[in-house]
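Is this the right way to post C-alpha cells for a design question? Let me know if I should format differently. Anyway, here goes:
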C-alpha cells in the first residue's frame, strides 16, 4: 500500500504536520527551496538543507538528492527532504496526498490534480478549486478547522498580541545584505541590544524579551526582513525560562504551577491543598481493605470520614452517609432507588444532566411522570399533585451560581409529605449546607469540598433506597441479597480509600475555615463583577450566588472567548452548555453558550485583576 505523502515546505508549522504524519504511519517526502528562510529554525526540518540532517524531538529529517535515497530514508521511518522548489518530484514519485505547507500566504503553484488528496495550510488557497481541503492556521477559535469550500481567514499582517505587545515583537531588517548573527535563539535580550548585523549595519532588539526566531547565519536578507522576539513580563524568572524553553515537559509543569490562572473551580478545585495531598500520600500507606481485613486502619479512616461528613451536613446518623464514585452515581442511585411506579416527580430547569437524564429515563420507561418548572417555591407549589413523591433540585446553579432557597422549599415539601432531594455539588464547601429540611443530599467530593476526582456520596435520612449495584460488602456474605444494614446496603465493592482520605481532609479544612472561605470568595466575586461591568453581558448576579460569574462578550462565541483566554492569557475557564441544557434554553444561550468564570478562596486579587484586563482587552480588540 502506498503511504507516501509529499509536503511542500519544511518550516515550523510544516514540521508539526510532518511529525504527526510520520507518527501516524505515513512516509513523508519534503520539498524545499535552496535557501529556506525559516526563523524558528530550532523546530523546523528545513534546517536539514543547511546541516544535511536535522532532528526535531525524536524525529530526523535527512537531505537526499535522488528518489532512491528518499525511499530508503522513508523506509526507516525518517523524513526525506529534497531541494525542489518547483515541485518536479511530485510527478515522479507515487504518493497518496500532497500538503502545501509553505505558508506563503498565497498559492505558489499547487493544483488540485497534483494528488488524490491535496491540502493547503493557511490563506492563499481556495478549497474545492486549488486544493481539496484548506486548514485554518489563524490562531483562535477556528484554528485547525477543515474548510471544504472557500478560503481560510486572510493574513492580517499584524503579529499576535502577547501581553499587550504586537508590532513591537517583530524586528525588521534595516537594509539588504548578509546576516551575521550575534545572538542565538532562546537568548534573553534587552531593548536596544544588538542581535545581528546586516553586513556592517547593526540590528537592534525592539523590546526586551526572549529571542524566539532568528534567520540562518549568512542568509542574504532583503530590506524589511523580519525576526521575532517574545516578550516576558516576569523579568525575575528569565534565567529559569531560558533553561525551560529547551525542556518542553518542564515548561508545562512550570506554567501550570506558576503562571496559569485557574477560574474553573466549579469543575474541580485546583490546586489541591497541601493537607489533601498529604492525606492522599498517607492513605497509600494504609494497609488492608475496609471490612475485609484483620488490619483496621482503612476501616477507621472511612469511619472518621463518615462521622465528619455527617457532622458537616447536620445528619444525625453517620451510618446514613454513603460514599461512592461521585455525585452522578449518587443522584442515579437515589433517583432509581427511591422512585416507584406511578410516582410524580418535580424538578427544575436549573438542573444538571446528572439529574435530568435519570429522570428522563424513568419517564420514558413509564415508571414516573415528570414536571419541570422554575426553581422557586411559588412555581413548585403550582405543580404539586396527589401522587407527587419527590421534588429534586440543585442548591445552586452550575451555570450562573444562583443559590435557591432549599430550606424554604424543604419546609413546604415536609408539610406536603413529599420527599426533598438536593444536589449540592456546587454549593457544598462554598456556603453552609444543612439537612434540616432535606431528605436526601447528594454531594461531589472534588469541588468545593476540596478532595480529588472520583469521590463523592450522599446523605439519606430514614428511608429505603434500592442499591444501584450489588456485590461484596465484607459482611453478611451468605445473604443472597445486599445487607439491610447501612451503609453496606448501598456500598458494594472495594472503597476508594485514597479518595475518601482526600475528601475527609478537605471537608475538615472547610469546616475549620468556612467563615474565611465565604468572606474571601465574596470579596473576589465583587471585584470580578466591578472589573467586568460595561465590557460583558452578565447572566449571573453578585447577590445570592456561589462564586460563579456567567458572561459573554457581545458578538463573540463563548468557545472563541474561552479558547482565547486559555491559549493567549493562560486563563482556564469553562464555555459551552455546562451539561445544563434547560438552563441555557431559559437564558436563550443554546447556540452561543456561556463563558463561566468560577473562583474559590485559593484565587488571589492578582488573578482577578489579570482576568479583568484580559477580558477588557478581548472585548476592545477582537
Amino acid at each position: 500500500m502506498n503511504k507516501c505523502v509529499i509536503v511542500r515546505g519544511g518550516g515550523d508549522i510544516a514540521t508539526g504536520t510532518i511529525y504527526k504524519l510520520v507518527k501516524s504511519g505515513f512516509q513523508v517526502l519534503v520539498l524545499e527551496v535552496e535557501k529556506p528562510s525559516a526563523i524558528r529554525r530550532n523546530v523546523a526540518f528545513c534546517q536539514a538543507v543547511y546541516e544535511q540532517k536535522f532532528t526535531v524531538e525524536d524525529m530526523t529529517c535527512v537531505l537526499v538528492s535522488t528518489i532512491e535515497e528518499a525511499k530508503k530514508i522513508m523506509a526507516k521511518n525518517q523524513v526525506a527532504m529534497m531541494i525542489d522548489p518547483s515541485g518536479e518530484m511530485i510527478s515522479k514519485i507515487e504518493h497518496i496526498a500532497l500538503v502545501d505547507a509553505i505558508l506563503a500566504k498565497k498559492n505558489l503553484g499547487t493544483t488540485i490534480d497534483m494528488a488524490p488528496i491535496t491540502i493547503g495550510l493557511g490563506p492563499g488557497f481556495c478549497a474545492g478549486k486549488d486544493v481539496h481541503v484548506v486548514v485554518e492556521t489563524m490562531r483562535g477559535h477556528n484554528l485547525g478547522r477543515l474548510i471544504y469550500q472557500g478560503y481560510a481567514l486572510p493574513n492580517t499582517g499584524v503579529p499576535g498580541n502577547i501581553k499587550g505587545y504586537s508590532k513591537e515583537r517583530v524586528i525588521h531588517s534595516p537594509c539588504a545584505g548578509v546576516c551575521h548573527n550575534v545572538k542565538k535563539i532562546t537568548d534573553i535580550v534587552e531593548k536596544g541590544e544588538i542581535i545581528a548585523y546586516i553586513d556592517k549595519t547593526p540590528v537592534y532588539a525592539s523590546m526586551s524579551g526572549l529571542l524566539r526566531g532568528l534567520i540562518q547565519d549568512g542568509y542574504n536578507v532583503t530590506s524589511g526582513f523580519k525576526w521575532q522576539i517574545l516578550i516576558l513580563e516576569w523579568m525575575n524568572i528569565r534565567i529559569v525560562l531560558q533553561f525551560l524553553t529547551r525542556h518542553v515537559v518542564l515548561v508545562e509543569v512550570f506554567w501550570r504551577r506558576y503562571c496559569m490562572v485557574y477560574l474553573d473551580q466549579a469543575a474541580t478545585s485546583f490546586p489541591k491543598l497541601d493537607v489533601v495531598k498529604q492525606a492522599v500520600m498517607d492513605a497509600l500507606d494504609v494497609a488492608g481493605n475496609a471490612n475485609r481485613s484483620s488490619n483496621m486502619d482503612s476501616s477507621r479512616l472511612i469511619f472518621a470520614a463518615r462521622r465528619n461528613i455527617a457532622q458537616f451536613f447536620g445528619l444525625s446518623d453517620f451510618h446514613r452517609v454513603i460514599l461512592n464514585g461521585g455525585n452522578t452515581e449518587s443522584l442515579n442511585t437515589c433517583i432509581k432507588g427511591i422512585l416507584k411506579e406511578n410516582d410524580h416527580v418535580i424538578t427544575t430547569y436549573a438542573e444538571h444532566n446528572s439529574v435530568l437524564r435519570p429522570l428522563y429515563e424513568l419517564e420514558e420507561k413509564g415508571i414516573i411522570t415528570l414536571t419541570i418548572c422554575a426553581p422557586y417555591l411559588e412555581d413548585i407549589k403550582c405543580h404539586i399533585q396527589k401522587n407527587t413523591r419527590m421534588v429534586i433540585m440543585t442548591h445552586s446553579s452550575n451555570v450562573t451560581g444562583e443559590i435557591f432557597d432549599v430550606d424554604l422549599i424543604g419546609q413546604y415539601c415536609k408539610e406536603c409529605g413529599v420527599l426533598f432531594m438536593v444536589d449540592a455539588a456546587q454549593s457544598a464547601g462554598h456556603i453552609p449546607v444543612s439537612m434540616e429540611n432535606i431528605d436526601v443530599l447528594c454531594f461531589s467530593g472534588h469541588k468545593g469540598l476540596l478532595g480529588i476526582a472520583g469521590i463523592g456520596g450522599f446523605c439519606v435520612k430514614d428511608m429505603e433506597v434500592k442499591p444501584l449495584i450489588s456485590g461484596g460488602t465484607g459482611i453478611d456474605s451468605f445473604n443472597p441479597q445486599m445487607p439491610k444494614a447501612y451503609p453496606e446496603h448501598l456500598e458494594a465493592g472495594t472503597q476508594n480509600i485514597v479518595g475518601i482520605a482526600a475528601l475527609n481532609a478537605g471537608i475538615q479544612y472547610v469546616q475549620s475555615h468556612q467563615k474565611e472561605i465565604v468572606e474571601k470568595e465574596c470579596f473576589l466575586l465583587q471585584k470580578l463583577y466591578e472589573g467586568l461591568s460595561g465590557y460583558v453581558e452578565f447572566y449571573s448576579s453578585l447577590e445570592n450566588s456561589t462564586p460563579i460569574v456567567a458572561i459573554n462578550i457581545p458578538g463573540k462565541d463563548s468557545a472563541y472567548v474561552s479558547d482565547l483566554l486559555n491559549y493567549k492569557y493562560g486563563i482556564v475557564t469553562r464555555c459551552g452548555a455546562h451539561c445544563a441544557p434547560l438552563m441555557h434554553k431559559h437564558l436563550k444561550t443554546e447556540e452561543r453558550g456561556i463563558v463561566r468564570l468560577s473562583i474559590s478562596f485559593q484565587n488571589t486579587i492578582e488573578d482577578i485583576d489579570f482576568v479583568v484586563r484580559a477580558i477588557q482587552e478581548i472585548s476592545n480588540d477582537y
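Format looks fine. Someone answered above. Worth noting: The chain has four domains: 4-147, 167-244, 262-266+512-621, 279-508. Residues 27 and 141 are 31 Å apart (CA to CA).
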